Automatic annotation (TrEMBL):
Residues 27-42, 566-587 have a biased composition (Basic and acidic residues). SMART domains: H15. One of its GO terms (cellular component) is nucleosome. It comes from Fistulifera solaris. Residues 55-126 form the H15 domain. Transmembrane segments: none annotated. This is H15 domain-containing protein. It comes from the Eukaryota. InterPro entries: DDT_domain, Histone_H1/H5_H15, WH-like_DNA-bd_sf, WH_DNA-bd_sf, WHIM2_dom. It is found in: Nucleus. Keywords: Coiled coil, Nucleus. The keyword Coiled coil applies. Residues 15-26, 1168-1177 have a biased composition (Polar residues). GO terms for molecular function: DNA binding.
């Protein structure tokens, strides 16, 4: 045995100097000692001089032998050691020299940790024992390896072949029969094959061992697990199997709910998966997360300036949005016929932001600028919580038209790759490209077929026809929103948020400022980290080297540890160069910078990146705004026929899962194999750096591990109390027989206390399932938060130290929380809000003109309208949470039926309707959806007719129809010439459409609109209707059908010959330079349905009042009726309020004129002229009766204009105007306006324009005057015809 570095003389030579290395005893000496021990002699033999066993031993070895032989547990003293050595080695003599060497050897052994000194005794140290044990193991391993090598060489393939060849030669020399010879050859060949197989196996084993030895961790995960499978290596023992992760929509059930452990319902599986990426759909869960992060998460869009404006949405959580979307998933929204108010509020808010006036400094494209202005003009008045679905559909239709048109103009649009599905999939199917012309060619004037303007594969705004966004848009055109699926709703909402991101300049500025702040925080954090590492190195010193992670043999690791054991002790101790105060200061600065960075991540990050990826590239997300749940996006293999396709053609299929409990978190962490790079990084991100308190586990809200521990402690406590209770009862029974009443009272008091403690503990141990009953649906879906947000003041004042800051709303609050009805007629509920709008407008009409309808009284009209509210409430569920338990999510699932159980808990707080539910059929109930919509439509038409009468728009429309009906053959020559001229104009425009190529679809639309206008001026309603039908067929990039329909209208009316038209001009050549179009010349992309919204009362340039009435009658969905109602109420309220001001202006003007009349004689006598300096009102209003008398009136800023005389129905106003020598007139061609003129400014109507001021009129005004004079002539002709020959 060797003892490295031991300085002691050999006992055989006192003059011998100490050496650094003690020699190991020879093998012969050990054998001689063993032989001496085996001799059966009772008498000890003295070793001969020079051959004694002490000659080759050092004093350290002798001391070690003495300690081992003495076997004292507490150690051996120096005298005992000396006595043993002298008694066992007589050749050594006791003396000063012996004691000095022995003492020096003991001191040196203690210093080298060979011995351990315990008080005055010595023991062999544990470190030395470990070194010796490692040496023994190494020697044993080397011996075993040598024997194995010797055996392998003896049984190697070369040796076997050599022996076989030798035996074959010997066999050839022998005289053997053929059968024996063949048998021996077969045996030799069999041995040779076995040797070859063995050699191959050993080579593979050697290669495997070599590969395992060379592996270094962490390594790439895919490569790691592929090698583990190839080399048959099992994962480490601490790596557990991947736990079952609940699906995303399990977030709506408690973590301990039994449905998570049972069979997952098909609805949850389908909603949590992301399929259909090939059609452009993102999936329900990604769309939901995108919407949440836009409003409340990473982007957190609040408007242009958070300090000046209120937030545009309430402070809802991700859980609120998930529960709200679940109401659509489980069918409660369809039963309640209501989209959850939180989702409706998000839709309304997005549309409000998109309808804001465009910033002309940022929007430079005239086409886009006109689109934004038209959307605001036509769609914004119709937007309300009840009509957002119809408005959203019309908005997306306009965007689809715009982007398909814009793509056709842009020559840089690249066509998509054309995939031959028949070749790849082996099937035949027609691949339809949405919003692209049909794949057929039409022959135009030339023989060459027309090419498509849009490239094949371009899907414009709505995407592929099979995408969720496209499906949702098609459904909204014919259904109410509660018939949409959750995926379709979220796809619509995501598209709206992406439009805001693309068009709102404040978002880009906000994101840029956020990025700068995050860069500053990151730089500060890195600087603080670097300084802390530097100070820690100066204070604590360098870290010890970590253990190797290579897969070496255990013997080699043990040897390295043992050999390095003594080296560390010999190194000099570290001397710190930094004080503890500096270390603490740097540590606090580093923590402060880290906290600021974490806070910045929660507030400033604009896009949440995954925390990390596991071995299968599944992403794990922790949203800093909602850190209570971890979300995992898991990849799924392709299914069906896609598996046979190449990898490059596979579309990703994913599913979303959650980690919402601490036990699940710990199980997932323990399943990570840190030998892989990705999972090692993910492991460090989840648990944080070693020793730091940054584990994501602290954010998990549901700590079931703690609850399990508390439950087990309660069980133990209850068991202990029960044991104490039994003991106390036994003690009471024992004390009952004794005479001492004091002991009996003490035992009874102790028994009573234990019973009370046990009773209190049992009462507190309430099962968790009972906690679900106290949850409230309004709180879960964010309805309470929305109500609080909407009821807050429009302005919020907060005072700082210096200034008073006022906050306003970026967009107005429309009250989506009122969509949930109370069951009463109070303006709540889907139908209740529409009824409240109509009743409010009717009250305004009643204040202007009392009800005078003959067929129905006002109370009957109101009762009929209000009756739709209870009828609707009887059909729909009162709340979204009151759906049937049997139909929620999935009938076969063990999961609770969404919010049904929660709704039962909160149902006591809500008012129920006892009337039975109605269905959509008229057979089983008194009301149906169609009957309710019909009642609302009739009330809307009645109210519109009443408002048109009050605003005099109905009389103006009646005069226009009268004029159209009386353009007959007995008209004057001028009328006939004008009629022929107008007929030629519309035919001229349609003929130009024939000469225009189909690819110039915008020019075709402009020509057709001009033709409709000319036909309307010519008062040919049949042609107008036919041309409008042709216009409905027009679509950007697909104008062929529209062109053909216009040509058929022209042929039915006799055609058009350009040679007979003197005003016909040839169209400009395509190659001629064209001037830049103004915004008015740019064709509109809005559909006719959008233009009709504003055409109530007096109509508009794009649609007439008759179109609006027809649209109301043909409306089949409540959303369409709500859009028409909202737009009508918005427009009518503006006009009626203006009429109220005009009525007050007329009253004030009469008072002013009366006062001037009284002062007129006195002032004329003084200065000889009138002193009236006030201006007459431009327009006035009062209830009037229109006479049949047509005259020419001179109104301020107008030439002499044809007008109809009116009589005020109010006798006071009529007498006042008669006394003031003034009259009320309505100008022909003006939609309902009344003017007050003096009687001397009235002239008889002559049928021709007055030539007094022709020189002062512009060409446009002169043309309008000519048209109005002609219209007045036709009105007079119609009045005379209606009056009969007697008059």
């Amino acid at each position: 045995m060797s003892f490295s570095g031991e300085h002691a003389e050999s006992p055989a030579s006192a003059d011998h100097s100490t050496s650094d290395v003690v020699n190991t005893p020879t093998k012969e000496a050990h054998n001689e000692n063993d032989e001496n021990k085996d001799e059966p002699s009772a008498k000890k033999r003295k070793p001969a001089p020079g051959t004694a066993s002490s000659l080759n031993r050092s004093y350290g070895q002798l001391i070690q032998e003495a300690i081992v032989a003495l076997k004292d547990r507490t150690g051996s003293s120096q005298p005992a050691i000396s006595k043993w050595i002298l008694s066992n080695y007589p050749d050594l003599q006791d003396g000063a020299h012996f004691r000095r060497n022995l003492n020096g050897a003991l001191k040196l052994g203690v210093k080298k940790e060979h011995f351990t000194k315990v008080k005055c005794s010595y023991k062999i140290s544990s470190a030395y024992k470990a070194i010796e044990s490692a040496k023994k193991k190494r020697l044993a391993a080397a011996k075993k390896k040598a024997k194995l090598k010797e055996y392998m060489e003896a049984n190697s393939l070369e040796r076997t072949l050599e022996l076989n060849a030798k035996k074959m030669n010997e066999m050839e020399k022998k005289d053997l029969d053929p059968e024996t010879r063949e048998k021996m050859k077969a045996e030799l060949l069999k041995k040779e094959e076995a040797a070859k197989r063995k050699a191959e196996f050993e080579a593979k084993a050697k290669e495997r061992a070599e590969r395992l030895r060379r592996r270094r961790f962490p390594m790439e995960d895919t490569k790691l697990h592929a090698e583990d499978k190839e080399l048959n290596v099992k994962p480490p023992a601490d790596v557990t199997a991947r736990p079952y992760l609940p699906y995303f929509w399990h977030a709506t059930v408690p973590p301990n709910h039994p449905s998570r452990l049972g069979k997952t319902s098909g609805c949850i599986l389908q909603a949590s998966k992301v399929d259909g990426l090939d059609s452009g759909s993102y999936g329900l869960v990604p769309d939901l997360l995108h919407v949440y992060h836009f409003f409340r998460g990473d982007v957190h869009f609040t408007g242009p300036n958070e300090n000046e404006y209120h937030p545009i949405v309430p402070d809802f959580t991700l859980k609120n949005l998930i529960f709200a979307v679940e109401q659509v998933l489980n069918g409660n929204a369809r039963k309640a016929k209501l989209i959850p108010p939180l989702i409706s509020h998000l839709f309304v808010t997005c549309l409000q932001v998109l309808f804001l006036p465009p910033d002309t400094s940022l929007v430079t494209d005239k086409n886009e600028l006109k689109l934004r202005r038209e959307i605001r003009e036509f769609l914004n008045p119709a937007l309300s919580p009840t009509s957002w679905a119809e408005v959203c559909s019309l908005y997306m239709d306009a965007m689809e038209r715009f982007y398909s048109t814009d793509a056709s103009r842009d020559p840089t649009v690249l066509p998509a790759l054309a995939i031959d599905t028949e070749y790849l999939l082996g099937i035949k199917e027609t691949v339809s490209i949405p919003m692209t012309p049909a794949i057929k060619t039409r022959k135009s004037n030339g023989d060459a077929p027309e090419n498509h303007v849009l490239p094949e594969g371009y899907s414009a705004y709505l995407g592929d026809g099979a995408s969720a966004l496209n499906r949702a848009h098609r459904k909204l055109a014919r259904q109410d929103p509660w018939y949409l699926t959750a995926e379709e709703l979220m796809a619509l909402l995501r598209a709206l948020t992406e439009d805001i991101l693309a068009t709102n300049a404040t978002i880009s500025d906000d994101l840029a400022s956020r990025e700068e702040e995050m860069q500053e925080l990151l730089r500060a954090k890195r600087s603080a980290d670097a300084k802390f590492r530097k100070v820690r190195l100066a204070f604590e010193g360098p870290k010890k080297p970590r253990k190797s992670t290579s897969e070496n043999d255990g013997e080699e690791n043990a040897e390295n540890e043992a050999s390095n054991n003594g080296k560390d002790k010999s190194e000099e101790p570290f001397k710190p160069t930094a004080s503890k105060k500096e270390f603490e200061t740097a540590k606090r600065a580093q923590q402060k910078a880290s906290e600021a960075y974490e806070k910045g991540i929660r507030k400033l990050v604009a896009r949440t990146e995954p925390v990390g990826y596991d071995r299968n590239f599944n992403a794990l997300y922790c949203f800093r705004n909602d850190p209570e749940v971890l979300y995992i996006e898991e990849k799924r293999p392709p299914s069906g026929i896609a598996c046979s396709l190449p990898q490059s053609f596979h579309f990703e299929r994913r599913s979303w899962h959650i980690i919402d409990s601490t036990s699940l978190f710990e199980s997932f962490v323990s399943s990570l194999d840190i030998r892989g790079k990705r999972e090692n990084e993910l492991y460090e991100e989840l648990l944080g750096p070693p020793g730091a308190q940054q584990s994501l586990r602290r954010f998990i809200a549901y700590d079931d591990v703690k609850k399990v521990k508390e439950a087990s402690s309660r069980v133990k406590e209850m068991e202990q109390l029960r044991k104490r209770l039994e003991a106390a009862r036994v003690k009471c029974s024992e004390e009952a027989g004794r005479r001492s009443g004091r002991l009996v009272g003490q035992s009874e008091h102790e028994l009573f206390q234990i019973e009370e403690e046990l009773k209190a503990l049992e009462e507190n141990d309430v099962p968790e399932e009972g906690a679900n009953d106290i949850l409230d649906y309004d709180e879960l879906t964010g309805l309470n938060t929305l109500r609080l947000f909407e009821t807050s003041g429009l302005k919020d004042h907060r005072r700082t130290r210096e200034v008073k800051i006022s906050k306003t709303r970026y967009v107005p609050v429309l009250g989506c929380a009122s969509l949930v009805g109370t069951g009463n007629i109070d303006g709540t509920g889907m139908v209740g809000m529409l009824v409240a709008q109509l009743l409010g407008l009717e009250e305004l009409c009643e204040s202007l003109r009392p009800w005078n309808e003959k067929g129905k009284t006002r109370s009957e009209w109101i009762n009929s309208l209000e009756g739709t509210v209870p009828a609707w409430n009887s059909m729909a569920s009162e709340s979204l949470a009151s759906g049937d338990d049997t139909n929620a999510m999935d009938d076969n699932s063990g999961r609770r039926d969404s919010l049904d159980s929660l709704g039962n808990g909160s149902s006591a707080k809500r008012r129920r309707t006892d009337s039975p539910r109605a269905t959509t059929s008229q057979t089983g109930n008194a009301f149906s959806i169609s009957s309710i919509i019909a009642t609302i439509k009739q009330s809307l038409l009645d109210l519109e007719e009443r408002a048109a009468t009050i605003t005099n728009a109905a009389k103006a429309a009646q005069d226009a129809e009268l004029a159209d009906d009386n353009m007959s053959v007995d008209a004057s020559d001028d009328d006939l010439a004008e009629k022929e001229k107008l007929e030629k104009i519309w035919k001229r425009f349609v003929h130009r459409i024939k000469e225009t190529p189909t690819k110039k679809y915008s020019e075709i639309r402009n020509l057709l609109v001009s033709a409709i206008g000319a036909a309307r001026q010519a008062h040919i309603p049949d042609i107008v209707a036919k041309l409008r039908s042709a216009l409905l067929l027009h679509h950007p990039n697909a104008a062929g059908e529209c062109k053909e329909a216009a040509m058929r209208v022209l042929e039915d009316c006799g055609g058009y010959d350009p040679d007979e038209d003197e005003d016909y001009e040839e169209a400009d050549d395509d190659n001629s330079p064209t001037e830049e179009l103004s915004e008015d010349d740019i064709p509109s992309v809005l559909s006719l349905e959008a233009a009709i919204l504003k055409s109530c009362l007096s109509g508009s340039d794009d649609a007439s009042r008759a179109d609006w009435i027809a649209a109301v009658k043909s409306a089949k969905t409540l959303s369409r009726v709500a859009a028409l109602t909202t737009a009508f109420c918005e427009i009518s309220q503006i006009k009626l309020l203006k009429i109220c001001d005009e009525r007050d202006a007329l009253t004030d003007a009469i008072k002013m004129w009366s006062t001037e009349e009284e002062k007129k004689p006195r002032k004329k006598a003084k200065n000889g002229m009138s002193s009236s300096t006030s201006m007459d009102p431009s327009e006035v209003w009062t209830n009037v009766h229109f006479s049949d008398d047509i005259c020419m009136a001179k109104v301020e800023n107008y030439p002499w204009w044809p007008a109809r005389k009116c009589m005020a129905t109010d006798s006071t106003i009529a007498e006042s105007l008669l006394r003031l020598d003034r009259s009320l007139v309505a100008l022909v061609g003006e939609m309902g306006g009344l003017r007050v003129v003096k009687n001397d400014m009235l002239r008889p109507f002559t049928g021709v324009p007055t030539s007094d001021d022709h020189g002062e009129m512009s060409k446009e005004v002169r043309s309008q005057l000519t048209e109005c004079v002609a219209m007045a002539r036709r009105i007079m002709r119609g009045v005379a015809k209606n009056a009969g020959p007697d008059n």
